[in-house]
């Protein structure tokens, strides 16, 4: 069993390295074959074949979230998994200016009418970009703002009760997916979960579970398996130590302002 579970990240790491090699080789080959006299095109960002979407840098070193999230998990999760979502999303919108020219949020809002690859990889890109920013090194993420704390106490009873509801929803999510704290259009906070790479911005999500993400945790096994093995509940509990409450509070204020 353990071997089968380790096979996925190792395979992804190999694929990620192959992608880097392939992307690194691509420009000179194309320049020689197509137009020897033309100046070489600018090299694409590493891991991002020509396309509008880019893999963002992590906002901290890969080691920064340890011991809550170990460095190897961060390296694979960002450098292989997230990179693959970006590359596959760029491939999915290639040659379709109506899609490639749109902000990602606009695509997600009407994703029910778009190819499945946009749903899976657009969600994967948005979710992970959000995820890296909603975390911070242990002890540096601050506290919920007074406004966010008051809203949490209003809608869940207490910060502790909210945490328990969030952890329970993360445990209940069967298989791969995400658990969220969202601000709904009616101004209420809610805890929700989504399967795979779906998120609360998508029109495929039930209406009561749509809203603006304030917090989100990745409960795919690739997010925690190297350290926590099958103990998803322990991962969900330890994760609070790396929550960036300052960023969550900023997103809450922005989401409230956008409702007015
Ligand atoms: Mn993930």
Q: Would you write up a description of this structure?
A:
The chain has ten helices and three strands. By secondary structure, the chain is mostly helical. The chain has one domain (1-33, 67-260): minor pseudopilin epsh fold, CATH 3.55.40.20. Helix 1 crosses helix 2, helix 2 (71-93) packs antiparallel against helix 5 (116-133) and helix 6 packs across helix 7. The chain is globular. Manganese (III) ion (MN3) binds at residues 77, 81, 128, 218, 220, 222-223.
Concise description?
The protein is mostly helical and 260 residues long. It is built from 10 helices and 3 strands, in the order αααααααβββααα. Residues 77, 81, 128, 218, 220, 222-223 line the site of manganese (III) ion.
Overview features:
single chain; 260 residues; mainly alpha; minor pseudopilin epsh fold; three-stranded antiparallel β-sheet; 10 helices; 3 strands; disordered N terminus; binds manganese (III) ion
């Amino acid at each position: 069993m353990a071997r089968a579970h380790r096979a996925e990240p190792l395979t992804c790491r190999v694929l990620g390295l192959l992608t880097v090699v392939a992307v690194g080789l691509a420009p000179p080959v194309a320049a020689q074959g197509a137009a020897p006299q033309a100046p070489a095109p600018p090299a694409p960002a590493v891991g991002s074949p020509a396309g509008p979407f880019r893999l963002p840098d992590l906002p901290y070193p890969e080691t920064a979230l340890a011991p809550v999230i170990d460095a190897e998990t961060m390296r694979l999760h960002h450098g292989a998994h997230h990179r693959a979502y970006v590359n596959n999303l760029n491939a999915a919108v290639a040659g379709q200016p109506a899609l490639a020219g749109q902000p990602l949020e606009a695509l997600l809002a009407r994703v029910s009418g778009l190819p499945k690859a946009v749903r899976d990889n657009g969600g994967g890109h948005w979710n992970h970009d959000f995820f890296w920013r909603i975390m911070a090194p242990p002890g540096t993420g601050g506290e919920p703002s007074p406004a966010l704390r008051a809203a949490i106490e209003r809608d869940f009873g207490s910060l502790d009760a909210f945490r328990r509801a969030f952890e329970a929803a993360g445990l209940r999510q069967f298989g791969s997916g995400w658990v969220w704290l969202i601000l709904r259009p009616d101004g209420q906070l809610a805890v929700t979960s989504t399967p795979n790479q779906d998120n609360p911005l998508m029109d495929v999500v039930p209406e009561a579970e749509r809203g603006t993400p304030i917090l989100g945790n990745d409960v795919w096994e690739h997010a925690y398996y190297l350290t926590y093995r099958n103990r998803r509940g322990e991962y969900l509990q330890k994760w609070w130590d790396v929550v960036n409450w300052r960023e969550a509070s900023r997103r809450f204020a922005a989401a409230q302002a956008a409702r007015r």
